[in-house]
Every structure is written in structure tokens, then in C-alpha cells.
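[SOLVED] Need 3D model of a three-part complex

Original post:
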Amino acid sequence: MPELPEVETARAAIERSALGRRIADVDDTDTFVCRPHSAGEIRSALVGLTLTEAHRRGKTLWCTTDGDAVLGLHLGMSGRIVVDPPAASGGSTDEGGDYWGDAPARPGAAAWFRFTLLFEDGGALRLHDKRRLGRVRLDPDLDALGPDAAEIDRDTFRSRVGRGRTPVKARLLDQSVLAGVGNLLADETLWRARLDPRRTVDTLDADDLDLLRRELRAATRRAIRQGGVHTGEVIEHRRAGGHCPRCGAEMMRGTVGGRTTWWCSVEQV
DNA sequence: ACACGTGTTATGCG
DNA sequence: TCGCATAACACGTG
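Solution:
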């Protein structure tokens, strides 16, 4: 699920609901998700502190604290952030009560909690992740990430995306070029821009690149507002027998940049 | 039973 | 060394 829009929603939920609550305990025992830390390492660093700010670049999320620790969170392929309110206000994870974050509000979810910050007020912040491809770590390294896809300016976009001769979709998915675009957002953006995902970037002129950036920003803002990348206009048509919602032509399927890719057989050239 | 997948990273090739 | 494609990771879902 999570691409830039979902991660931004999670960041906003943390900012709104989790900051300023003192951490009483931490469950970091899933060392696959919390690697490369050993069990207890993150706990030792965080107990007694409070989260002070929630930041995001691309799909990487991190929280500063009122101490030295910085808590990095990555949702991977299936991660979600769940923020439970203070115990006194009712609603708990076990009862499927009120959720402040983006979460499956149902019993049994506890089996998929891979990391938990337990607050002194009885509430919690949790990483719910069925596939365990999410990551939690202290002091996350952001150096390998390009500029955020929602923030990148026009000239930077032109030079970073337009360099080389890789297929344009592969370039959009490269987190070191720009951070935040995943498989669905790439397909939605290229469909909006009417560009064939297999086009190599050296065939794109400045106007093409400007259009691509414009549609990327529009698709991203729309996804945040509507509740996720899956709400994109072309997404439900990414299936066998699907048709372009603009022109009605058959949708094509292929592999580009190592990922399943769908595009309009007529409009995307 | 079997293939697939909204992400990242190690590995191998040219 | 650079850039790109592929496999592997874990595990639920169709």
C-alpha cells in the first residue's frame, strides 16, 4: 500500500495524535523489522522521552524526540501506523476501538503489530505490518534519498529525471533520483501525462518533463486528499480486460523497471 | 496449489 | 565505476 501519499497521511496522524506523549515502554522484539538493532536497543533509547516532530521524505518517516534519539519508520509494502488514544478516552486495539491513524480497526490486528511505543497515558503508537517488510530504526540514513517527489522544483526534476537513457517509469521509481513514487503512483502519473512508461528519458524534451512533473504533483495531491494511491483514476483499470477511462482503448500490461506496468494502448505514446 | 504483489537491497552483468 | 535488471526477502491473498 504505502507510497508517498499514504506515508504523508501516517506522518500527519503521528503529528496530530502522538507528539508530546511520554513513552513508558517499547516493544522492539521483532529484530527482523527493527534490524540492524538488537532487541531492547530501541527501547533503551526511547523510554522516558516524547516524540516532538514528525517528518517525511519520500516514503521514509522519522520522529525527533526531546532527547538525542531519532526514530525512523518505513512502512515497506504492507505497513500502517496505528495510534491509539489515551486509555481513559476509551477505545483500545483489542476492542477494535477508535483509531487515530491509518489502520485496520478490527480485532486480531495484534498478531501483526511489529513495533509498539506504549505511552504513559495507556495509549500507543504501533506499526502494523503483515509482511514484515517495514523497518524501524534509530537515526535513519536519508543520504541515499533524492528530493521529495512532492517538493522537487522544476529545474531539479528536469536534470535528475531527464539524465541517462532508462525507461521513464524506471526513473520515476528510483528513490535516489526522487523519493516517494511507487508502482501505482508511477502508472497513474504516466497515464495522466499520456506518456508510454517504456519511453527512455532521453526522448523526453523539457516540455515533456515539465508536464510529467505537473501530473506527478497533481496525482500525488489528489491521492493524499482522496485517501491513497489506490483511488487514482486509472488504478481500477489495471487488470486484464481493463479499458482506459478516458478513451476506452484496451489497457496494456508489461514489465517496466522490474514492476508490473499498465498503460493505455492508444493514448500513452 | 500456485502465482502475485502498493518496497528495498544485494548481486551480477555489460 | 556507473547504470540497469533481477533475485531475494516475508507472508497474506486471490
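Edit: Residues 1-3, 6, 59, 74-79, 131, 133-135, 173, 175, 182-185, 228-230, 235, 259-260 of chain A lie near DNA strand B (CB under 10 Å from a C1').
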